[in-house]
Design goal:
There is one protein chain. The chain folds into two domains: 156 residues, no CATH class; 85 residues, RraB-like (Alpha-Beta Plaits). The chain is built from seven helices and ten strands. It is elongated. It starts with 8 loop residues before the first helix and ends with a strand.
């Protein structure tokens, strides 16, 4: 479902700034996380409350409200607003939350930033006063902004469950994003080539050997093998390939290696690389 956006170092720093802004805004929520994906020709970022999946759908909140402003001065060709615009747009979204609280019971489940627009996704109990209240808010206080306001009956919470909530590929992106973000915060130059190491565990030495043969035939080096006595998959192997830290290439290599390891009943333990 998700195709990931290849970012250069400077563009990644921009995304980091936007991510930190988004995360700080909802620090009081239960379990918010962020991922980035390509939608059509442009990248978008999704912030989602993962905790809602365990109880979705909430039968008391059967209506979906999608609303938010479009940036006034978005010149980024990929449609990513700059940090100052994000802060202003988030202030508007905070007001929409207050307006909805005065009109009906609600639950904020996600925020989507795409093509210079930033919208919140709410599930609400009743929509009788919602459209009028939000339209009046935009026209009275934020007249200079274009905005989105969509309301529909969605008792099964399909938008949350199938669009906002990450699938397995997006979940892997979120894990990788945290690793790369930690490297950046440690002062890493992501453009500096280094060995990127991928570790797998297998139940038998025969399966591990077969995986090693596949890896070397596909330009990976076997960095280490070891037997871990305390695990269900004790026959471990680490393979590596030299390159720079680029999200798309790491995701592609992970996918290729995991797909092969699964045919041999192997388990992926993760990747790591030395900080440069």
């Amino acid at each position: 479902m998700y195709l990931f956006y290849t970012m250069k170092y400077s563009a990644y720093l921009l995304f980091v700034a936007v991510t930190l802004c988004m995360t700080t805004t909802h620090a009081q929520q239960e379990n918010w996380d962020t991922y980035m994906a390509r939608y059509g020709s442009k990248p978008g970022s999704v912030m989602v409350d993962l905790a809602q999946m365990s109880s979705a759908p909430d039968k008391l909140l059967p209506y979906l409200v999608v609303t938010g402003p479009k940036a006034k001065n978005c010149t980024n060709p990929q449609g990513i607003p700059d940090t100052s615009e994000i802060f202003e747009m988030e202030k508007i979204l905070d007001v929409t939350g207050g307006i909805l609280s005065g009109a009906t019971a609600k639950k904020l489940v996600g925020t989507f930033t795409y093509n210079c627009e930033r919208v919140n996704y709410y599930y609400v109990k009743d929509t009788t006063a919602v459209r009028t209240a939000l339209s009046r808010m935009y026209s009275n206080h934020f007249r200079e902004y274009e905005y989105t306001l969509k309301i529909k009956h969605e008792p099964l919470w399909l938008t949350y469950r199938t669009f906002l909530y990450p699938d397995s590929t997006a979940a892997a992106w979120m894990v990788n994003n945290k690793i790369i973000l930690g490297m950046l915060q440690g002062g890493d130059n992501l453009d500096e080539p280094r060995n990127i190491n991928y570790t797998f565990g297998f139940s038998t030495d025969t399966a591990r050997t077969a995986f090693g043969s596949y890896a070397t035939a596909n330009r990976y080096n076997i960095t280490a093998t070891e037997n871990a006595q305390s695990t269900l998959l004790p026959h471990q192997i680490t393979v590596s390939r030299r390159g720079t830290i680029v999200m798309d290439s790491i995701m592609a290599m992970e996918s290729e290696l995991i797909r092969t390891a699964k045919t041999m009943k192997g388990y992926y333990k993760g990747w790591e690389a030395p900080i440069k």
